[in-house]
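Continuing the series of single-chain predictions for the mutant panel. This is the parent chain; the variants come on the following pages.
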Amino acid sequence: MRVALLFAAVTFLWSVPALPQSPADLCTGDVTVVRVSTIKPGAMQTFMAAVAAHKAWYRANGVTDNEIVTAPVLVRDQATKLWKLSDIEVMSFHIRPPANSRTPNRGDAAWNAYVKQYRDSSDLKSEYMTCMPKHGRQ
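Parent structure:
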């Protein structure tokens, strides 16, 4: 009986596919965090300074294979039907964000400073983790 149960358990475990351990296990491209931020009135420069400080923090901490880029959202004026760049919404793309194990200084003074800049200048409207096709490297 024990042998039969052991055999059944081993057979079951071999037949169950391995579960992905992280988003990188699922993604054949680049894991990318996509955020849509609503910029507070008059705070676009502070938001962009936060982006620059965010990038700088990673470089100062030895992470050189990630990218952070921003793009204003395009909006269409319903009355004129003309397109313009939004002055209140920005999308940001954090391409290949490093695992926590690669960022041991998370939460240090410089980290907290750029997070404060983001909070002072914007509200996070939405955040997604995506699998973007390979970006910027082959």
